[in-house]
Amino acid sequence: MSSTPLLQVRGLTKRYLGLTAVDGLSYEVEAGSIVGLIGPNGSGKSTSIDCVSGFQRADAGDWFLDGHKLRDVPPHRIAALGLTRTFQTVRAYEDLSLLENLRVAAQESDGHGWFSALRRSAPLRESEARAAQRAGALLESVGLSRYADAPAAVLSYGQRKLLAIAASVMARPRLVILDEPVAGVNPTMVRHIEEVIREFNAQGVALLIVEHNVDFIMNLCQRVVVLESGRKIADGPPGLIRSDPRVLEAYLGPGGARALEATP
Ligand SMILES: Nc1ncnc2c1ncn2[C@@H]1O[C@H](COP(=O)(O)OP(=O)(O)OP(=O)(O)O)[C@@H](O)[C@H]1O
């Protein structure tokens, strides 16, 4: 068995005019693991995941999914290789039902082109039937099946986050990047989203989670990568990250240590 990490990021660098937003960032995500990516506002979290998932072009570095080089690969090809993501701003097709929203997510990476769709070939019909079945099962597992045929417009903000997470695993990716999955969500929904993430992880999906909610990250992740000013300042298990003086100082600033203490 190969010991190559599922995701390997090497020297990722992104500049905006005079500003180096991400500066030589390297980290890894092991298959089947949950890794947190934290840091103060403006530390480069969003920019780095946008580059890794193909939504922005980096200035330097290389990154690999299971050995496949991803740099300069467009997002839909990256999704087809097994890396999908959610976005900070929740995106849903408001007028489409939840089932239709999930089926769109499957189409975006199932490799069937327009010609196949026009001919409605047997493989396409089979893949549509499988997608419909999976969409139903996913809505069940995130607790949204009662809205399966309702338009996404009826969902609350937290429910939209759940739909986005379900959409991200629709095409059976190996790695999902979640961008602030619980930002602005009530505590009950935060716990529910945590359970949903654990459930998908138990099914073998690895996750890289960007989130400001430190307790959420510390509870859920096996490893946490910390950024400051575009650079990695720490990378390790939550217990070590909580007590790392560089993290306490740089991430939270003087006097901010309490925010990293475990909640009782
Ligand atoms: N399109 C852009 N043009 C110029 N500068 C940008 C652009 N996008 C981000 N930046 C800058 O790059 C740096 C990193 O921003 P980024 O959004 O990646 O940080 P972040 O850690 O995700 O922050 P937050 O937690 O607030 O979302 C910041 O200084 C930001 O102002």
Describe this structure in words.
The chain has 264 residues and is an alpha/beta fold. It has a domain at 7-94 and 168-260: Rossmann fold, CATH 3.40.50. It is 39% helix and 22% strand. The strands form 2 sheets. The chain has a 6-stranded mixed beta sheet, with helices on both faces. Strands 2-1-4-5 form a 4-stranded antiparallel beta sheet, covered by helices on one side. Strand 9 (223-228) and strand 10 form a beta hairpin. The longest helix is centred in the middle third of the chain and has 21 residues, at 122-142. Bound molecules: adenosine-5'-triphosphate. Residues 7-254 form the ABC transporter domain.
**Order of strands in the sheet with most strands:** 6-7-8-3-9-10
- The helical percent reads 25-40%
Number of helices: 10
**Mind telling me which CATH architecture of the domain at 7-94 and 168-260 this is?**
3-Layer(aba) Sandwich
Uncertain stretches of 5 or more adjacent residues: none
Terminal CA distance:
40 Å
Query: Can you tell me the CATH topology of the domain at 7-94 and 168-260?
Result: Rossmann fold
Beta-strand segment tally:
10
The multimeric state of the shown protein is single chain
CATH class of the domain at 7-94 and 168-260: Alpha Beta
Q: How would you sum up the major sheet?
A: 6 strands, mixed
What ions, cofactors and ligands are bound? adenosine-5'-triphosphate
**CATH-wise, what's the superfamily of the domain at 7-94 and 168-260?**
P-loop containing nucleotide triphosphate hydrolases
| Portion in beta strands | 15-25%
- Rg, rounded, reads 19 Å
Mean pLDDT: 89
Mass-distribution shape? globular
Order of helices and strands: EEEHEEHEHHHHEHEHEEHH
Q: Structural class of the helix and strand makeup?
A: alpha/beta
